[in-house]
Amino acid sequence: MVTGTGLVERAGGLREVARRRAADAEERRRLTPDVVAGVLESGFARHFVPVGFGGAGGTFREFADAVAVVAEGCAAAAWCASVASSLARVAAFLPAQGQAEVWAEGADAFVVGSLSPAGKAAAAPGGWRVSGSWACVSGVDFSDWVVVCAVLPGQAGARLFALPRGAYAVKDTWSASGMRGTGSNTVVVDDVFVPESRSVDRQRLFDGPAVPIQAVNGLSCAPAALGAARGALRLWTGDTARRLARGAGKAGGPGPSLGTYEAALARGSGEIDAAALLLERAADVADRGARITEAEIARNVRDYALSTELLVTAVNRMFATAGTSGQSLESPLQRAWRDVNSIATHIALTFDPAAVLFAARPFALEAAA
User: Fold this and answer.
1) Acyl-CoA dehydrogenase C-terminal domain spans which residues (predicted)?
2) Are residues 189 and 285 both part of a single domain?
3) What is the value of pTM for the model shown?
């Protein structure tokens, strides 16, 4: 039975294509064109596009579930699928005329971008002149549009700007150890005019009419780690069962004992299940939109970071008992291990800032009592 927009069901087909092409993506340091086509055909780009422009009107819960499904086959493909959805949602904050330009050719335009204020913008008649360089823009080689963030000299705050392909250059800079297939290269903009219709104050993302970005920012990252951890568990379980059948784990023998493998399986699968439950609740809260409370925002931010810590712990434990074969470049397990640990470094998943935000209100209330 197809649920919602059918994104989760279509993600299953994309997962298998992405799994077959994962090694190629690693070698190329970007996705293969057939996987990118699958991302768009599956409906990730249109998931959060306004219905008036052909969008699907999808939910955060369906989005997160679908990203995790794809990540079971290839975390890099899932990450770029998440970008396609998430940056389209950001583009939906543009004025109506700007939205019409972004989706003039249809709701499957591949929008990528960076919300880091790494550029500068100056007012010009009818709009702005924008310059800057934005690193780590995933999927940019296949993009149709980019959304970048720039500061205004002498003014507080920052603005977002949407530029079509051809208005920006791509510099090949991506050489990370994990998530190699995301093609997270650098966008360069050199004194380009952007009309007012394709610009919006970045603060709208935080206090606009939709769900605040703090409540969902980690949801664009953590589900990819969840799916990769699930994939790692499947791989590790199969490999370990075959090793045990060959005599590994016997009392007095070399290597870990049977109990070590059993504990790794029980703990790892439990941690992955716990992380999934945290992310499901966070997505359900996000689907309430503007009715989310400050306390729920803080809890969501905490849960994105905490769930990722659980996933890292689970994958690291499995990898530690995978033996030399698990470290082989031919093993998908080592790719999942690198990818999950790489995802965990994203600023949206850092635990200490999440803890500060979560503790601020109850500690303040206690101090005032």
Assistant:
1) 221-349
2) no
3) 0.95
